[in-house]
Amino acid sequence: MKKAGKKCMNLRKCNITFVVVIAVQCLVMVFNFWNLEKEFNIYVDSSNEYSVVSKAAINLQTGSDYLTEQVRYFVITRDIGHMKNYFEERDVTKRRETAIEELKKQQSMGKAVDFLESALFESKKLENLEYYAMRLMVDALGIKDSSDFIIPESVKLVQLSEKDKALSNDYKISQAWLLLFSNEYLAEKNMIASYKSMALTEIFNQSQKIHDESFDQLHKSYKNIQVLVIMIFVTGLIFFFSIVFHIIKPLYIFIKNIKEDKMLPLTNTEELNILCKTYNEMYMRYSANEVRLKQKAEHDQLTGLINRTALDEIRQSLSKSKDRIALLLIDVDRFKQINDTFGHVTGDQVLKHLADSLSSCFRQTDYVGRTGGDEFVVIMTGCTGSRDELEELIRTKVLLLREKLQAPPANVPAPTVSIGIAINEEGYSDSLYGNADFALYKVKKAGRDGFEIYSGN
Question: Given this model, what pLDDT does residue 2 score?
Fold first, then answer.
């Protein structure tokens, strides 16, 4: 049994605590999953942004190089189709401008956009040289507007220097070629490439920084989730073993005690202790009722002595004994006359006086009972001495009984009794009862108020 006053666990509070702990852990895990997804999206967006910006930078370079190629091809091949391609790229396709617009949408790439805008600016500067070269070619080749081709205004508006106007057509073509392959032109191209390289470097560094930060956050969130999974697992184990230790184990003990008809031991769980105390109170009430019912079923209500039912069980039990026992059959002399003379209430008092006297005269190992009416029985057990010693003990007890019967309570007549006695060497038998009854018959025949020990005669 648990010590009274020992603090017990409240199962309801414990369950609420476990639920709250697991709920908090799950919420933290959800937050970490959300953060993991967020950082992963940042990582993906950064990669996509890097791809978009890199592609835009390449497109700007490609657009600029394409314009250079077409104007050079026009000078070399004298095919106006290349001039058409040049202005289609500049006015329609516009890869350079489109690239810049795409870059401006990426807010984290401000410095890279600045570099690419500088590259675009340098590319625009080259257009003036390219227009001039195309104007030299138009004049040298004598190209005129036609239904198939109209010379762009950018070329028409170019004013050749007086020196270049005076050149022959072949020299004009040569001059156009020299302009497109001059150191000045190449320096501008290199400047564009340099700005593009710086933009790509900035894009790479910025993306790498974002990648590293995102990866660190991803790794941190992943570690947090691992720790939370372990914590939830450990919390679950603690909860499981708490259930086993505080509920299942005590319940098995309860079941065992109930099967064995025992009281339930207190536990260290408040709720189970309430069940335990309630059951134990019911058990004690039931046991007390059972004792009272058994007492009522096995004892005479008037005298409190064991009744015929209990005596029959005792006789059956003693029939298997190997020890010497003695049986005394006791009848109240002329009990009907006492009832008729003094009344039934007084008669009951006489029976109670006899029962009390028998209980006080005989030993605790002896069974004293009332079989009905004015008939009483004493079964003496534990008779370890010789037969003669037992007979002497019986005479002593009978004489003491007769003496006590002569000192009744006030207003109660002193009764006399007739006693038939028989002794058996090995337990109880039907012959033992018959012998005692025969001895009782002899006492009554001799005039009552006496005793007889059956001797076989």
Answer: 46
Compute the distance between CA of residue 415 and CA of residue 337 in angstroms, rounded to an integer: 11
DSSP state of 306: B
Distance in angstroms (rounded) separating the CA atoms of residues 343 and 226: 95
Residue 83 tokens, joined: 């001039």
Query: Locate tokens 């025992």: which residue?
Result: 262
CA-nearest of 92, 95, 179, 178 to 131 is 179
Rounded CA separation 419/358 (Å): 12
Q: pLDDT (tens digit, 9 = 90+) per residue, 117-126?
A: 888 788 888 8
**Contact assessment for residue 270 and residue 10, using Cβ atoms and an 8 Å cutoff:** yes
Angstrom distances, CA of residue 125 to CA of 64, 74, 129: 11, 19, 8
Structure tokens at 199: 């933009």
The structure tokens listed for 300 are 């005479």
Q: What is the largest CA-CA distance in the chain?
A: 186
Contact at 8 Å (CB) between 73 and 82?
A: yes
Which one of 12-26, 29-43, 338-352 scores highest in mean pLDDT?
A: 338-352
Residues contacting 8, CB < 8 A, separation 6+: 2, 267, 268, 269, 270, 273
Residues 6+ apart with CB under 8 A from 223: none
Tokens representing 354 are: 């006899």
Helix, strand, or coil here: 301? coil
Q: Are 118 and 195 in contact (CB under 8 A)?
A: yes
pTM over 0.85: no
* DSSP conformational letter for 2: P
Q: Report the C-alpha dihedral over residues 398, 399, 402, 406, rounded to 10 degrees.
A: -160
DSSP string, 316-375: HHHTT--S-EEEEEEEETTHHHHHHHH-HHHHHHHHHHHHHHHHHHS-TTSEEEEEETTE
Instruction: Provide φ and ψ at 324, rounded to 5°.
Output: -75, 135
Cβ-based neighbours of 437, under 8 Å, separated by 6 or more? 329, 420
Confidence label for 424 from pLDDT (cuts 50, 70 and 90): very high
Q: Are 28 and 71 in contact (CB under 8 A)?
A: no
